[in-house]
Write a structure and sequence with these properties.
This protein has strands spanning about 5, 10, 15-25, 30-40, 45-50, 55-60, 65-70, 75-80, 90-100, 115, 120-124. It has about 120 residues and is an all-beta fold. Strands 2, 4, 5, 6, 9, 10 and 11 form a 7-stranded mixed sheet that branches. Strand 7 and strand 8 (about 75-80) form a beta hairpin. The chain is globular, with a radius of gyration of 13 Å. The N and C termini lie far apart (about 35 Å).
């Protein structure tokens, strides 16, 4: 499974971005998919996940401002981020692990496949 993120860039406070993550193939029938981010000098944070059943979970830091979704047919994962703040500045990664459960973990150690990351910079 190869994951490739796109859609990062520079945006002003209050702006919006939509990140995309394209998968080259899916070996397993069902996955948990997620978005993580790592601000400069900080640890990796799981911010949004979605199961093959469409069940989502968000970190408190983005709840109400982020929406994770997927186009299963196109094998693309999305993250819509609104009302961006300078503290949202980070490298954003998409990740996946095989799962048949309807609820996904937000722990990075549970995720097996990772993209290369895309930078998001929010200026004040």
């Amino acid at each position: 499974e190869q994951l490739v993120e796109s859609g990062g860039g520079a945006v002003q406070t209050g702006g919006s971005l939509r990140l995309s993550c394209a998968a080259s193939r899916y070996t397993y029938n069902s996955y948990c998919l997620g978005w993580f981010r790592q601000p400069p000098g900080e640890e990796l944070e799981g911010i949004a996940v979605i199961s093959s059943y469409g069940v989502t979970s968000y970190a408190d830091s983005v709840k109400g401002r982020a929406t994770i979704s997927q186009d299963s047919a196109k094998k693309i994962l999305y993250l819509q981020m609104n009302s961006l703040k300078p503290e949202d500045t980070a490298v954003y990664y998409c990740a996946a692990y095989p799962s048949t459960f309807d609820y996904c973990s937000r722990l990075s150690t549970d995720f097996r496949y990772w993209g290369q990351g895309t930078q998001v910079t929010v200026s004040s």
